[in-house]
Amino acid sequence: MVISLIVVLAGLGLANYSTAVKRSREAVLKENLFQMRDSIDQYYADTGKYPPSLEDLASDGYLRAIPEDPFTGSATTWVTIPAEPDPNDPFTDLGIYDVKSGTDALALDGTPYSEW
Question: How far lies 47's CA from each of 5, 90, 103, 106, in Å?
């Protein structure tokens, strides 16, 4: 009886632990996306164009370094969304308008991280 109670409590603790780890990774992902998007906006406000790459944000001092995606464990898996072409000047470099996670995992609320 005592052993079965310990096994049940250990199972509940393990489930809560894994959920807490996933929640913390989600919080890190939200913060990383916010920081990179804010840096893209600051770059655009300063230069009048979107950055050509995430590396340019870091090299120009808008970010200290490109953060790692907490779900892929790499700073190279970010998916960049290009800006819309300017109808008045269709030959200009578009640059990066937005950034998203490169994982296809689902969040605790059921939405894909790649849509955040």
Answer: 63, 18, 31, 36
Residue that wins the pLDDT comparison between 3 and 32: 32
Could you tell me which of 36, 20, 111, 109 has the C-alpha nearest to residue 69? 36
Provide the token pair at 33.
């996306």
Find the radius of gyration of the CA atoms of the chain: 20
Q: What is the DSSP code (8-state) at residue 80?
A: E
Give the pLDDT confidence score for residue 75 in this predicted structure: 95
Question: Which among 80, 78, 90, 77 is positioned nearest to 52, based on CA atoms?
Answer: 80
Cβ neighbours for 25, distance < 8 A, ≥ 6 positions apart: 70, 71
Q: Where are the domains of the chain?
A: 2-115
Query: Which are the contacts of 20, defined by CB distance < 8 A and separation ≥ 6?
Result: none
The DSSP secondary-structure symbol of 69 reads: B
User: CB neighbours of 85 closer than 8 A, spacing ≥ 6?
Assistant: 92, 94
- pLDDT average, residue stretch 101-115: 95
Whether 48 has a pLDDT exceeding 80, the answer reads yes
pTM comes to 0.83
